Amino acid sequence: MKRLSLNVVLGGAIVGIVVAGAVLGAVWTPYDPLKINFVGRLAPPGAAHWFGTDEFGRDVLSRLMAAAATSMLISLSTVAAAGLLGTAVGLVSGYARGWTDRILMAFNDALLAFPAILLALGLLTVAGANSTGIIVALGLAYTPSVARIVRGTVLSLREREFVEASRVMGNSELYTVLRHILPNCVGPMTVLATSMFGWVLLAESALSFLGLGVPPPAPTWGNMLAASRPFIAQAVWLAIFPGLCISLTLLGINLLGDALRDRLDPRMRGAS
Questions:
Q1: How does this protein lie in the membrane (predicted)?
Q2: What is the mean pLDDT of each run of 10 residues along the chain (272 residues)?
Q3: Fewest CB within 10 angstroms: 45, 124, 132, 135, which?
Q4: Phi, psi angles (nearest 5°) of residue 140
Q5: 213 vs 209: CA distance, rounded Å
């Protein structure tokens, strides 16, 4: 029996804890994350409030759990949207080639010229600063990266023997793409989706930190960090705990992404 690598164990444990907290935070929290209690404002971590309270007396742990649910939902939805749209564009561009490929890739390269966070900022001015707007903006911002990866994979597959055999057998182009080419894109897409989940989580936190994320009082890790700035000297826990959540989640995702790459990339398996 093969031993699990340290990346799988450590990354899986971190991501598992975060996901469990997000699922639990969607249905239950120790306190109401939105309830204001000025009597208990800026209380340090203790028995009643493990992670302390914020400037409005709201329980920090409860808000972190609720924020985890929001961040996970936005990240998963964004990765799914970018993955579906980018895969469709990459499949059409790589398989059709010719003018179709040139036009799609010209537009794709134009979008790639902008940093994803900058493109998302521009799109948010149109879509609005809310959960749906963030998903749309980040989904469109990361679609070009997906399309480029899928197109490269399709170009390497379209001339392979099994694809030629499918054409000789009289199968339609659509059947050949969906049955023989798309399944072979799953490996690279899985690795990319894992990395992209971390990018989206960090981008969502950055947008919330800038005030362009989910509007208050709904908690996100980014807007909790932003709200902690005026109180950093007297209530340092307001910045420490959201920052730790973001950092540990990104660490866990990156470790799992490295393990998936080692598992799915033949070159990495050979090196191992």
A1: Multi-pass membrane protein
A2: 74 92 92 91 92 94 94 92 94 90 92 86 81 90 93 88 85 85 86 88 87 85 90 92 94 87 59 47
A3: 132
A4: -70, -35
A5: 7
